[in-house]
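Tip: read the tokens left to right.
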């Protein structure tokens, strides 16, 4: 008896668009408080993430900054992980004056192409000052 062979399809490789990534390295100038610059850099990442969530009904609570400026430090200087189809990881080490951020999100495709199954995109933002 001959078995019917099942046809297997492979996923074809497609040419991907390349997107530029940007990195920033700065040195605090004379007369500037490094703590203030460090905090401003982290707040910039929080604002960027809130903008990324503009089409989602609820921004994850750890990304919400309090309205009162004096409470912001308590909000941004903590470690947390959010997993909800995407992963946001923040690691803060007070003793090392180090803060890092990573966003991992699945390829959702675009108007020009279908998503690639299993493909992930990552954004990493380490900040450290000594």
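Filled-in amino acids:
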């Amino acid at each position: 008896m001959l078995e019917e062979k099942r046809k297997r399809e492979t996923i074809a490789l497609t040419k991907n668009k390349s997107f530029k990534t940007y990195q920033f390295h700065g040195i605090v100038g004379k007369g500037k408080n490094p703590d203030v610059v460090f905090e401003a850099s982290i707040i910039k990442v929080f604002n960027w993430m809130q903008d990324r969530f503009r089409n989602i009904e609820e921004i994850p609570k750890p990304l919400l900054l309090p309205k009162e400026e004096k409470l912001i430090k308590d909000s941004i200087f903590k470690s947390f992980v959010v997993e909800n189809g995407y992963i946001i990881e923040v690691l803060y080490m007070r003793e090392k004056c180090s803060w890092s951020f990573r966003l991992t999100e699945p390829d959702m495709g675009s108007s020009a192409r279908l998503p690639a199954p299993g493909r992930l995109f990552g954004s990493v933002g380490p900040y450290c000052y000594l």
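The first helix runs from residue 34 to 52. The chain has one domain: 34-128.
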